[in-house]
Amino acid sequence: MTDASATAARRPGEQALTALGLGAPALDPADASPHAFPDGGRWRTEVPSCEGPEALAVVLKESSRLDVPIHRISQGSGVWMLTDAEITEMVEATAERDIELCLFTGPRGTWDIGGSTRTDSGGGGTRARGHDAVAGCVEDAVRATELGVKCLLVADEGVLWTLHRARSAGIIPADTTLKVSALVGPVNPASFAVYERLGADSVNVPSDLTLDHLTEIRRVSGAPLDMYIEAPDDLGGYVRMYEVAELIRRGAPIYLKFGLSKSPGIYPYGHHLRELTLATAKERVRRGRLALDLLQRHGAEGEMAALGSRLPGSLNRFEISS
User: Fold this and answer.
1) Strand ranges inside the chain, DSSP E
2) β-bridge mates for residue 103, sequence order
3) How many H-runs (helices) and E-runs (strands) does the chain carry?
4) Which runs of consecutive H residues, i.e. helices, occur in 211-273?
5) In angstroms, rounded to a whole number, what is the distance separating the alpha carbons of residues 206 and 226?
6) Which residue in 103, 111, 115 sits closest to 127, CA to CA?
7) What is the pTM for the complete model shown?
8) What is the dihedral of CA 243, 249, 255, 257, to 10 degrees?
9) Which of 148, 161, 225, 282 is deepest in the core (most CB within 10 A)?
10) C-alpha distance from residue 272 to each of 51, 170, 266, 267, 275 (Å)
């Protein structure tokens, strides 16, 4: 726990608006999250959609140039879209910078033969359809962790529980972290708490959740929360940079994800999307710099978790029966 001050950061335009008689109501200390990462930090950073070694190299170079601290880099196309050599190269490059690498697991319903995902209702969405799809996710998890990957992205509750059990049984390393995809992110505190209990170490929530929604979640769970500060168009295209300080105050511990609106989808990635992927990878880092600059201007940058930190701390889990 941490003493989360309600007045630590300056709000955008605060001084000018107050002088004009348009000041905002005082912040309510009861809205602030009481939670933090194990080292006391309240936010970490993530650059998503890094689809291979070449895009990773761009992100690392640009982050050094713009002085953007990175805790985690994630990929969205999936483990099976990378060769062993590519995974190994990404593992080594991120380890050199002490950055967590997160790869997506297995098949998902939006890509297989299930036509219901293309209906207006969305059908089963990104979830793993049938035993074989779950098996593919587990296969990816075992392969990736054997190659040194320490974080796995999942988009299905059953896959999450299965991998949590595999982690507990020693099938994959005990320090593997499991991250819930934004494609299935929970939208209420009850479902967020269920994901935590199923084994999630961080949980993506949709970027259109309100500040009050984040406070509601923090009243039932201290599990790390992932949130796009700028969301891709297929997740709404929301740009919430001016809210970053308040998102941290309400949602800590939180991963600030630097996405990119107004850019085409790149999953599943292949060389035919190379130029777009490299250009968008570079721009995501720049967007991160813009968000961090806002934090600095508002006096809210001082609570970043230590670089190299990756574990979530103590979390609540469902009991695993033998």
Assistant:
1) 43-47, 72-74, 100-104, 151-154, 177-180, 202-204, 225-230, 254-258
2) 152
3) 9, 8
4) 211-218, 244-251
5) 9
6) 111
7) 0.90
8) 0
9) 225
10) 13, 39, 10, 11, 8
Within 147-232, where are the H helices? 157-168, 189-198, 211-218
pLDDT score at 28? 85
Question: How far is CA 37 from each of CA 49, 192, 224, 225, rounded to the nearest angstrom?
Answer: 24, 17, 8, 11
107 to each of 28, 71, 137, 154, 209, how far by Cα in Å?
44, 26, 6, 10, 27
Q: What is the CA radius of gyration of the chain?
A: 19
Residue 281 vs residues 48, 51, 69, 145, 285: alpha-carbon distances, Å: 8, 9, 15, 24, 7
Which tokens sit at 116? 């219901």
Q: Cα–Cα–Cα angle for 277, 102, 271, nearest 5°?
A: 25
Half-sphere exposure for 215 (CA within 13 Å, toward CB) = 13
Residue keyed to tokens 């880092």:
285
Of 107, 97, 103, residue with least CA distance to 74 = 103
243/309 Cα distance (integer angstroms): 24
124-142 confidence digits (pLDDT tens): 557 787 898 899 999 999 9
Q: To the nearest whole number, what is the mean pLDDT of the chain?
A: 89
208-229 pLDDT tens trace: 999 999 999 999 999 999 999 9
72, 37 Cβ separation under 8 angstroms: no
Range scoring the smallest mean pLDDT among 72-81, 186-195, 218-227, 236-245: 236-245
Contact, 257 vs 226, CB < 8 A? yes
Q: Which residues pair with 44 in a beta bridge?
A: 255
Largest Cα span, the chain: 65
SS3 151: strand
Tokens of 230: 């700028």
Query: 83: which strand partners?
Result: none
Instruction: Name the token pair of 305.
Output: 């978790």
Give the span between the Cα atoms of 51 and 278, in whole angstroms: 9
